[in-house]
Amino acid sequence: MQKLAIQGGAPLRGEVRISGAKNAALPIMCASLLTAETLHLTNLPDLHDVGTMRKLLLQMGVTAEMATGEVTFKGDGVTNWEAPYDMVKTMRAAILVLGPLVARFGDAKVSLPGGCAIGSRPVDLHIKGLQAMGAEIAIEHGYIHAKAKRLKGARIFFDIVSVTGTENLMMAATLADGVTVLENAAREPEVIDLADCLRAMGAQISGDGTDTVTITGVEALHGATHRIMPDRIESGTFLVAAAATGGSVTLRETRADILETVLEKLSEAGAKIKVDGDSIHLEMTGRPKAVNVRTAPHPAFPTDMQAQFMALNCIAEGSSMVVETIFENRFMHVQELRRLGAQIDVEGNTSVVKGVDHLEGATVMATDLRASACLVIAGLVAQGETVIDRIYHLDRGYEHIESKLSQLGANIRRIK
Ligand code: EPZ
What we know:
Elements: E1 3-7, E2 13-17, H1 22-30, E3 38-42, H2 48-60, E4 63-67, E5 70-74, E6 82-83, H3 85-88, H4 98-105, E7 107-111, H5 124-132, E8 136-140, E9 143-147, E10 155-157, H6 163-173, E11 179-183, H7 189-200, E12 204-206, E13 212-216, E14 224-227, H8 232-244, E15 248-252, H9 260-268, E16 272-276, E17 279-283, E18 293-294, H10 306-314, E19 319-323, H11 333-339, E20 343-347, E21 350-354, E22 363-365, H12 369-381, E23 385-389, H13 392-397, H14 401-407, E24 411-415
Parallel strand pairs: 2-15, 3-14, 6-7, 10-11, 18-19, 22-23
Antiparallel strand pairs: 1-23, 1-24, 3-5, 4-5, 7-9, 8-9, 11-13, 12-13, 15-17, 16-17, 19-21, 20-21
Helix pairs in contact: 1-2, 1-7, 4-6, 5-6, 6-7, 8-10, 8-12, 10-12
């Protein structure tokens, strides 16, 4: 089990390049199942989850030619329409092969993703949507068996906004017979990036980025080249780390228009932010001010930035409320932060954080991807050494995080 050891106290200074977005790359990789031609992806992040998704596609029969930060998929030899439990249990995003498999081959056998640390995370909306499009679905022995001669366009209303639910059904609808309208769809930027890629492949999609997405099915999709958008959560994570350590950091190859609420909250906390094209510069002098945070679907404050902001609030001036409205169990970082001296009370889906003037290094345990990022930020500001265990969570979603942080002056090293 690998660990990270961090000596806190150094303000982050310098420049860091932001990688391609994990949550855009994962659905877009599954789009390779929708065509027999080649799909060439660039700005692909080197993440554990991207490797897992590639392995899953390869065992289905997709071929892949890889180069640094790039992959060329070819979906002409897909013969195995199954996503086995041992792969789905380590990466829930594997559910994103379901829509493309049913749409192109009319047959899919995908393991139900187990629960996960942050919540039960059912996939009932994915299944309901495919049934509305005419798929016959049976759930047997922990697997979703879906069959359809050809999916038909349908009007689908999401009771709850679901990012991968929207993405799965959008992909399925590209090859369905007729028009599909997704109501109460997710508006996340990663949904738009997937739609851009699908349009480049010949799909007819409009309304992505709003709560109503319309897809007109076509007979077949062709190959394309697509550059994965920058990772807004990696961007936000580095900006919060810069603010928490009182540093001065410039992010390169990112975008500010996909991070507006996070940038607003950082300004509220006292950070000075300058945007210049695909760069964002943040300067923080003095102690951050506590800011209230309430997560909700895009364009509201992203749940994937909740834990990171809680770390900032732990050492901020004043008290703050952090409300998590998306997942039912996304406060596991709280007890780890308390080990570092944070003062946090949790009441249901609300945490009240009382800023303390410093944290003390300790050994803590990562429980999920974004909680790990929160503990890294806390370790960067704590006095003394913080050792974070189970950092495999971190490697799922952050490309070479300790080398990027070291470049910014952090005293951080990985220990076997
Ligand atoms: C995506 O997960 C992201 N993952 C998550 O990022 C992110 O936290 C989440 O969206 C919310 O923004 C990827 O894009 C790969 P949801 P997803 O379906 O799609 C309920 C990270 O850290 N729901 O939008 O699985 C669900 O329980 C990860 O990078 C149903 O009830 O999330 C949750 O309460 C963590 N039934 C809410 O909707 C369904 O069929 C939102 O979930 C689907 C979802």
